[in-house]
User: Fold this.
Amino acid sequence: MKVEIWSDVVCPWCYIGKRRFELALAGFEHRKQVEVIWRSYQLDPEAPRNSEQTVNEVLAQKYGVDLAGAAEMNKRVSTIAAQDGLEYHLESARHLNTFDAHRLVHLAATHHLQDAMEERLFKAYFTDGIALGETEELVKLAVEVGIDADEARAVLESSTYADEVRADFQRARMLGIQGVPFYAVDEKYGISGAQPSEVFKEVLEKGWAESHPLLKIGSVTQDAGTCDGDTCATS
Assistant:
């Protein structure tokens, strides 16, 4: 089974959704047969590479509220995140472009470290207040998950994986995805938003049952010989 997850590493609900999906997957009987692929998505493709503008300021402009109102919005989502075991410090978060961070996730995938890279980027932004638009900061994060510094720097200083990131964007548009997180299970079922773990598990089980149907047995001969447990009919 394949689960594709579209997310942006500056999306607070995407990190919450990651935790809830992980909880569902941990309780799924066939979890070792599930391939999880992280897909790129940008909430604001026009965001500057680096900025001193705070997330509170961006929210205030977007929703037409004052800074206190924006701070209260972030406080609410931080409280929800804490219930899922996450520590948010949105007062330290800055509005920035995530394109290079997504390229780093694609690099990590070639080393089978995609999930670890995604996790570290989330924590870096929401908990540690790290500027994800700065090349050297991204290099440090890559090294932490096991990627060579020179390889990460070479990728970030070039256009490598830019086409792969844009392909993820394009596929999201083709599927009609308008927000993240979004989960596609075997390209049959779509889950939008950071749903409760029970919802994720239900869809995983349904998808597995459809792709691995039980053998349907029909009666061909009424008196055919069978063994039931340790008992076999001999007459």
Q: What stands out?
A: The chain is about 50% helix and 10% strand. The CA atoms of residues 20 and 206 lie 18 Å apart. The chain has one domain: 2-211.
